[in-house]
Every structure is written in C-alpha cells, then in structure tokens.
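writing this on my phone so excuse typos. first protein, seq and then structure
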Amino acid sequence: MDEELEGETASECEKFGKVIRCSIHEEKGPGVPAAKAVRIFVQFAEPSSAGRGISILSLKTFYHPLSLPSLS
C-alpha cells in the first residue's frame, strides 16, 4: 500500500467538503482478494459532503499496480 495514500485521499475528498478523518486499513490473509484488501474510511463534517463524495467517487475506477513475477 502506498504510504502517501491517506494524505492523497483526504486531499481528494476535501473537494467535497471538510474532512474530519481519513483512515486506511489493509486486510491481509488468505482468502482476501487484492481488489478488496484496502479499505478507506472518510468522515466528513457534513452529511451533504459525504453524499457528494459518494456520488462522485463511486463512479471512479481506482487502480493499484500489482507486482507480478516475470514469466521469462
């Protein structure tokens, strides 16, 4: 997980309103698919800000590059 992800996420979310807290948790273990391993939680000062954030961010595709072994 990118060490700057929390700050970048909070900064992106500030476009929708005041961010009280942003925290990121990484689920590890067998059976946890990579696409669901990172959980991001954002608390906004106002419910309307959270609503705007959900509306916009749910339309985005997030890509986290994977390190894959060489096939050669």
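second protein below, same order as before
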Amino acid sequence: MPRKPVKKANRVIGVIIVVLVVVGAFTGFKFLMKQKSKLETQKGNEKIQIPSNTEPIIDYNKIKENKELKELMQQRKAQYGVDKGVDIIAQSNESIKIGDSTVSMQEILEKIRLKSGDIVEKDLKSQDVTTKDKIESFGIHVVQPGENIWNIHLTFLKDYFDHKGVQLSPRSDEPLEGGSSSGVGKILKFSEHTVNIYNIREHKLDVNLNLIFPLTKVVVYNMDQIFAFLDLIDYKHVNRIQFDGETLWMPSN
C-alpha cells in the first residue's frame, strides 16, 4: 500500500515532463518558423528595394530665391551664351524638380534613347543607366501659359544669335517674298526634330508638339549637340539654307 503514492507521483511527474517537452518543442518550432519568415521577408525586401536617389536635384521652384542655385544656373548659361531660351541647364547625372514633380535626367535620357532605337544597359540593383556617353548638359525650358513650340524655339535661337553678335529682326522667322520659308524659319522647323518634350507629371515623352500644358511639360535641348550644329551655320547667308523636312543643309553654290 505505501508504494501506490510513489507510482502515482511518478506518473504525474512523467506527464509534466511530457507536457514540458511538447510545449518546448512547439515553442521552439514556432520560434524557428518566425525567424525563417523574418529572413524571407528581409530577402524579399532586398529584392525590391530601390536605393534612395542621391543625384543632385535642380529645383526650378527655388532658382529665384536660392542665391547659390541662381548663380550656378547663370554660370552654366554663360558657358553657352543663353539666357531666356532655357530656365535650367542640368547635367545628365542630376534630377530636376518642377512644382511637386521630380524626375531624373537619366530617366528622360533613357526614354529619348529608346525612342531613337539606341540600346540602354541598366543595372537593376543600382538603378543606374550605363551608356558610352560622358556627362552631358541639357537645357530645360519649363512651358508657361500661352507659349507654343515655335516661339519657344525662336527665343532659344535669338539667345544664341545674340551671343554670336547677330541681330535677328522681329520678323526673321516669317516667310520670304513669294511664300518660301526664311532661313530662320527652316532652322526652327528642323529644331522640332532635334528636341524633345517631356511630360514630368506622367513621366513620358510627349508626341504632340502643339499640345502643351503649363508647368507639366518641359522642352529638352541637348546643349552640346544643338550648339555643334548651330556653329556650322553661316549666318551671313542664312536664307540660303535648305530643308526638306528631315535634313538641313547649305548649298555649296
């Protein structure tokens, strides 16, 4: 009779041990699953994580009030001899901000190159666009109420002519007697094929050059390319320029 309490106690202890083992195993299993889930979540985040934008931002909204930014834009404009023709001169490794919209120049250039059929290599991890081009400068004109693409180009061209010491008459872009286009008019028509309009709110190139909404679109000039072209023109004989809708040239005779 005295042995029965001992057996009963042993059974209770055994049950307690089994319960503890089960609870411990379940707790350990739950902990391991939680850690595994946490690691998988971290890995997933690493796959989709986009690095923060470290590119310098040229804020159009602050150019007038920010002394350093204003001086920087003046210095860059002075290098090309332009003033009113563009609002910003941004480099290809910078971003621009218009209103509440910020866009990387690399994003704009990638879309322009893809439109032109060029191949663009992109490092998905760093989000950098790799090309063979060096850092380039781009003139940015922010479209304002009442502007049209013709007048935007004409203002840009007048800036360039003024820098060269050539005065354009107010009617230099109008047709000549007989109805043919003037040399300046032909340059303006050609320039429509050499610049791009970018919708900064929708983040896409705009195909309609005539439909421009204020502060939502910018006209993008490749400063090096367009000035390399303009420097070849003999302005003493500008009205001899020929344009066939695609190519602009000066007859030899």
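The first strand starts at residue 57 and ends at 59. thats all i got for now
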